[in-house]
Design goal:
Strand order of the largest sheet of chain B: 2-8-7-6-5-3-4
Number of domains of chain A: 2
Number of helices of chain B: 13
Order of helices and strands of chain B: EHHEHEHEHEHEHEEHHEEHEHHEH
Largest sheet of chain B: 7 strands, mixed
Structural class of chain A: alpha/beta
CATH class of the largest domain in chain A: Alpha Beta
Largest sheet of chain A: 9 strands, mixed
Radius of gyration of chain B: 21 Å
Number of helices of chain A: 13
Shape of chain A: elongated
CATH architecture of the largest domain in chain A: 3-Layer(aba) Sandwich
Radius of gyration of chain A: 27 Å
CATH topology of the largest domain in chain A: Rossmann fold
CATH superfamily of the largest domain in chain A: HUPs
Structural class of chain B: alpha/beta
Oligomer: heterodimer
Order of helices and strands of chain A: EHEEHEHEHEEEEEHEHEHHEHEHHHHE
Distance between the termini of chain B: 40 Å
Distance between the termini of chain A: 51 Å
Amino acid sequence: MQQARERAQVSGTPALPPPEIVLVRYGELALKGGNRRQFEDRLAQNIRDATARISGVRVERRRGRLAVFPERRTEDVAFRLQEVFGIKSVSPAWGSPSEPDAIARCAQPVLVDALAALPPDREVTFRVHTSRGDKLFPLNSIELDRYVAEKIMPGLGRLRVRLDDPELALGIDVRAERSYVFVRRLPGPGGLPVGTLGRALCLLSGGIDSPVAAWMSMKRGLHVGFITFHSYPFVGDASKRKVVEVARLLARWQQPESRLFVVPFTEIQTAIRDAAPESYRTVLYRRFMQRIAARVAAENRLAALITGESLGQVASQTLENIACIEAAADAQVLRPLIGFDKEDTVAVARRIGTFDVSSRQEPDCCSVFMPERPVLRGKIEACEAAEAGLDLAGLIDRACAGIETIELDPEA
Amino acid sequence: MTAPFIYLDNAATTPVDPEVREAMRPFLDAEFGNPSSRHRVGQRAAEAVDRARAEVARATGAKAADVVFTSGGTEANNLAVLGSARARRKHGRHVLVGPTEHPCVRESAQALVEEGFEVETLRLDSSGALDLAHLAAALRPDTVLVGLLLVQNEFGSVQPVREVSARVRARSPHAAVHVDAVQAFGKVEVSLRSLGADSIAISAHKVHGPKGSGALVVNGAIPLRPLVFGGGQQGGRRPGTEGVAGIVGLGVSARLAEERRESACASMRRCRDIVAAGIARIPGARVLEPGAPAQPVSPAILAVVIPGAPSEVRMNHLEELGVIVSAGSACHSKTSQVSPSLVAIGLSAADARCMLRFSFSRATTESDASTAVSALEAVCSKLESARK
């Protein structure tokens, strides 16, 4: 008679247990001398925040690396970390007692699992690469490479050693208390940990460009707040939701918190329509956006504005018009896309997943009362003259008082 | 979730969690908008659908954009099998399905034969575990789909999906790996990454959500032909106005299922052990665990063969004592044939007719399990004395 059996764990991988940790390699921040400690701490915190909803994790600092110990779902944690700035690559890794035989025994099923996914019936080039944090370990790195290779290769007939660019590279990380083996190196996004370079505010429209500008800024270590302008009821809430959706996709890259300021813009647009020359409307809308964004940035201690502007992308994106807009408020403006062709921007937008949402056809506030022939080479004096009849302070105060602040729950 | 009976048929369906019901309620009431409508009423519904999409994505290690809502597990499995195979037909027409699949995978694969596909069924080895050597030999360069369930619905075996997908990658570069995770979700880790899968089907009502709601979770932009055509909702992969309340229910039930997975498994395991120990005391009775011990078994399902009386009779007697179990998989228990899955594990027709399935959920208590054992003992001795 067959009895019900006790089993410690149910999993889909009886041969190979789930990986125990994720090894995280970072790029540039290792070069940052005095700030290094601070950068590592930030990266560790960003890792904890990004994975919080998948699993609790403990992060340990290693020589030039971080080791992430998830409580559960290690593979999902590794996948998630591929979208944390500052990370160059990650490897799900299996733990073993720090003893040559145990390490070889641990490596065996890891290699079997990796080999199973490579085309059968041919040789697979292979090497072992040991990195030794524990210099008291009985074997040096090269000796351990050789020891492990000799131990496991006989059972896996297809492997052939090639030190230069092998198909399978078994990594061994030797530590005094426990050692780790891995074969996969999944690329991270590179860049610098979000927050290490300060905070800024990105003007988000419904278009393809501004989300890419925000993402490129995050990649260089900025934490980004978002601001958008909504002209209800000329523009419906579907347009606002589109911006919210895009902002949530971006929020994924800078957990735990992101904020979107939605500024009511109807009164300002109506006032400009009624008081200013038609051809200047677009430039004037943007001057108001600049002023309001500058005020919101100052109030929230965000040190710069970010826009998706790129020279000459539409006829009105000229040096003169950009100068008119910038002159409206005293703020540092970053334009990460200035040297981008449209294809470059689209390629990034596709990669980060904002393209599909951004290309959905929804009107945005810039299309409200759009002039037939917008000015191409705007003059600052003309802008100022057109605004002379407007209650600038009142319009801006009322818009700022009506701001709706949305705390973005990434992708939810 | 109290009831005047002890419900041990959770593989058929589960009671709706009150938290799920409360989350759904507004969408059967004031929040009745169409998510495709551009006005505020519609946009609030769209917002709720997005939230559910993110919850399902988190529970399966996917991205929100990769969740396709369906009318349930059957449609999700059909969409994966038919949709993936059809989208890949330029690469070949060879399809492999597991030996113990649910009919919704087996029969949708069979429907491809009429379209010129060749469909082969994988095998079990002599121990009842999936035969990986046979799989490796069956994989071809023109294989375009491999469909396998993660937890078998009749006897709970956990299939080695990761090992299968590795072999598929090695031998069949154009093949999609589809995983039917309907019985696995909330019981084992269901993750695109750790399974190495291209798509995963789940269903809400197996994890304390509403019936009529499920999802196919896909790995990025894999090619997938839709089964239905319409207004372009869900990127055209599954058009039709979204069933907002059901989708909200799926989102919450998926989140709870994954959040509570470890504790639920521990408690289901204890219940299963209590019933299994009771079975061990019944002369001639045995637990079905094909492939054990190499192949693990879900803590939620306990299949047993108790010779001496047809399972229907035993089920009815247990019902009379307030204990609800299944005489076979409810999805096709109306047909009297032995299911192909039971044939595959080598169960004789006589034994199959004496099979009972106890299935547990996180709502099952140890006292439920003990009461069920007492009831089973009472039924067995009653039926035994009736035969004398």
